[in-house]
Structure formats: structure tokens, C-alpha cells
Amino acid sequence: MRMSEVTLVLGGARSGKSRHAEQIVERLDSPWAYLATAQAFDAEMEARIALHRARRSESWRTYDAPLDLAGTLDALPPDMPALVDCLTLWLTNHLLAEHDLEAEAARLIAAVLRRSAPVVLVANEVGLGIVPDNALARRFRDAAGRLNQDLAAKADRVVFLVAGLPMVFKDTVVKDR
Amino acid sequence: MRMSEVTLVLGGARSGKSRHAEQIVERLDSPWAYLATAQAFDAEMEARIALHRARRSESWRTYDAPLDLAGTLDALPPDMPALVDCLTLWLTNHLLAEHDLEAEAARLIAAVLRRSAPVVLVANEVGLGIVPDNALARRFRDAAGRLNQDLAAKADRVVFLVAGLPMVFKDTVVKDR
Amino acid sequence: MRMSEVTLVLGGARSGKSRHAEQIVERLDSPWAYLATAQAFDAEMEARIALHRARRSESWRTYDAPLDLAGTLDALPPDMPALVDCLTLWLTNHLLAEHDLEAEAARLIAAVLRRSAPVVLVANEVGLGIVPDNALARRFRDAAGRLNQDLAAKADRVVFLVAGLPMVFKDTVVKDR
């Protein structure tokens, strides 16, 4: 894996995205940065966050970044591999804060591409069901799809997970291995 | 690409289906037919249609075909490549008009196969979420899935897009290239 | 295909999962066991069950197993290939009966792995839409995703269907063919 590699890990709910992303980072030299975007609004979320945290080894440094992923990435040690989990919650946080989603997405992508160490980003694919009834859900679905497309266009590798199994949709570095 | 090639472009919302389909057609000799099935019922739809239209070059001839795709395809110049965008809206239009969906699907597929120029069809995959609460949405989901299956069985190529990236699910013409 | 092969067939609604799974089993020596998990609560379900049943040849032996898949698998003749259609309904049945979903999943997987004849299991992928509004749907989505992951980890082959077309996500026996 070359230093600046960017990997986007896509998949549905409970598709094993986080675990897969962690395994990619854990093959690199530690310590690793874990950029957590989840905010615990209720008991359901709290339990989910605790479960994810308990699974990770002590070589992970956790940074809470519900909104400022770009700033958090910029402030990391330059050679520290980073995992962002997950973009879909981060986008939700910005949507609820009524921020400009396109500007935030552009700012994030620029920060990811500035890194000299590998970055792995986890995002949900949410556009494969029936059109949602409510307008906010549709707006979110559109923004999430656009963010995934923009990141996928810049990423070195894109994998799509189904039932814990990855399918490689893009790999520009496969020859380096 | 041989003359009569039929390509089905599947994917979720905001997965880059339209853009991918346009790029397939734009490699062929122009002019190209754009068969638009969208009807602007509200401002959200109008904005989306305008955005799609603004992206297309002047070599596209736009035909509005919210219901009669078969007739519109039959009336095109025989050697004009055609893009149908999208089947999911077309099916919705027929569902709301209380037409016989299976008969309409069969009529469409026959017209597609009658073309001597390439046809690229865009359709949404809508069956990968939780079962919808309301019966109409379930009926639509079933009809959309059946239409996609029937077309995929007849198509020369079927691609599934995730985050703007295509995964080839079927390609019977790969040797011709 | 070696005797104990386990195949997991994943896909969305109306993606051709059942037909694909039947075709896998029908290449093996008959008779074949069809383990049906569907319970007809209403006319819509009854019509769907009847349609599936009418499509199957007489070499199929149908076993109704809305809850006890493990016991039904254990009771089959040891050399009889089995098709389980589908796990998503089976999980729904256990959810509605307020059973321990993790315990039931573990019991099922153990029974599948005890078989000396091939087993093909059909399951829906339901996690690729917007987060459902209601908590029960979210709980179900999580349980279904975990079951699919656990089975996929143990299966010899995992295929994901889109529009009737299979994409192989895992195949540990491809060299035996």
C-alpha cells in the first residue's frame, strides 16, 4: 500500500463495513487514528458506539469528529493512518445543523487528499430502496449519493460490502502489491 | 459495439446511472435520441429534469415519452442510438395510470429488441431496503424487479452502479471489442 | 460440487433469488428438499407462495418450517440436497414470536454445517435503503444483516443477485469444478 492511498468502504447496514475498514488499517504500522462521527442521541446509538469501541485494539487513538472531519484530519500526525467511521452519520450531523452539504463535502475531500498517510472512509449506501416518503430523507439520500460518487472518483480503491464480503469496484493500485 | 446492442444500466438513487448511460451512447455516432420519461409534477422534479437536460450536449434529441416508450422507439430513425432514462419513472407513470404493467413491459421489451441501433436503458434498483409499509409501494417494487429481470435476460450488457462505478453483471459482447 | 457445499443466495426483492437457488439444486440428484419458511397471513402472501410452488417440479419435497429450520434439516435423509427459502421470512417469524434471534441463528448455522448433502439458502439483503423510521424494522434489519454475515462467513459460495443475474462474492470451491 503506498503512503497516500485512499480507500472508500461502502455497504448497507450491518454489512461488515466497519470491521473490514479496521482490518485494512490494522495491516499498517500503528498507532492508527479512529475518527468517530457518531453522536449518541439515545440508548440505541450509545450501545452501538460502545460495541464498536470495545472491538478495537489499544493501538487505536479515537478522535470525536461529528462535524469537523477536515480539521481533525489536518491536525493528525502526518504519517498516521486514519479511519473515518462513518461519512453517513457525519453528513446527517451537517444536515441537522443546516450546513451547506456540498461545501462541507468539498472541504472533506480536499483534507483527505492532503493526507500523506492512508485514509480509509466508511460510508453507507442508502439509495437502493423505495423512494422515501419524506422530503428530508430524499434530500439526505441525494447528498449521500453525491458524496459517495465524489469520493469514489478520487479514491484509489472502492469496495462494496455484502454480508461481510467485499467486492472491489475500483482499484488503481492493484499492480503495486 | 454491434448495431443492435442493448445495455441495461441499474443502480440506486444518485449512483451515477444517467451519466454512465450517456457516456455509453456518446461513444457512438451522433445524433442520439434521449427518451425522457420524467414528468414534472412539482418543483423538486422540475429542478432534477433541468439539471439532467443542462448536462447533455446539443447532439441529443429529446423525446418526451412518459408512457409510450414503445411507440417512441418505433418512430425513431432506424440507425439512431437511443437512451431511455428512466424505466422506473415510466413504470410509476403506468402504475398511477392504472395500466396493465406486465403488458406494457412486454410491449416495451419487444420495441427495444426491434431496434437496429443500440439502446441503453436506465433503471433503479429499489428492492434492497426494508419491505415498504404500503401495498402500492410493494406492488411497484415487485413490478420494477420483474421488469429489470425481464430486460436483463434480453440485454447484451447489464451493469450495476455503486457510487458512480460500474460493475458488469452480464456482457455477451465482450469478445467483439 | 462436493457433497457438503453450502451456498448463500442474497439479493433484493424480485431479484430472482428463488429461481437461481432452485437451479443450483436442480443440477444435483433428486429428490430435493424444499424448506419453506413462508406463512400465509394474508391473500398477498398466499398468492406469492402458490406462485413459487407451481414453478417447482415434482422432484421437490416441500417441508413447512416457519420456525424450526434446524430440526427440519436434521430430520432430512442425509444425502438429500436442501433449499431453504427464505431466511428473511424465517427471521421475521422468530422476531414476531419474540424468540432469541442470535440463539436461533447459531442453532440454524450449526444444523446447516452438520448436513452431508448440499444446502442452498436464500436471504434478502435489506440494509441498502434509508434507515427505517420504526425501531422494530431497525432491529430486524440489524438481525438480518448479522445472520447474513455469519452465514456468509461459513458458506462455501455466496452470490448476490441483481435483476436475476448473479455476482459471485465468495467461492471456495471454484477449483473443484
Automatic annotation (TrEMBL), chains A, B, C:
It catalyses: adenosylcob(III)inamide + ATP = adenosylcob(III)inamide phosphate + ADP + H(+); adenosylcob(III)inamide phosphate + GTP + H(+) = adenosylcob(III)inamide-GDP + diphosphate; adenosylcob(III)inamide + GTP = adenosylcob(III)inamide phosphate + GDP + H(+). Pathway: Cofactor biosynthesis; adenosylcobalamin biosynthesis; adenosylcobalamin from cob(II)yrinate a,c-diamide: step 5/7; Cofactor biosynthesis; adenosylcobalamin biosynthesis; adenosylcobalamin from cob(II)yrinate a,c-diamide: step 6/7. Pfam families: CobU. Keywords: ATP-binding, Cobalamin biosynthesis, GTP-binding, Kinase, Nucleotide-binding, Transferase. GO terms for biological process: cobalamin biosynthetic process. GO terms for molecular function: adenosylcobinamide kinase activity; ATP binding; cobinamide phosphate guanylyltransferase activity; GTP binding. GTP binds at residues 11-18, 36-38, 53-56, 85. SUPFAM superfamilies: P-loop containing nucleoside triphosphate hydrolases (SSF52540). Catalyzes ATP-dependent phosphorylation of adenosylcobinamide and addition of GMP to adenosylcobinamide phosphate. This is Bifunctional adenosylcobalamin biosynthesis protein. The lineage of its organism: Bacteria, Pseudomonadati, Pseudomonadota, Alphaproteobacteria, Hyphomicrobiales.
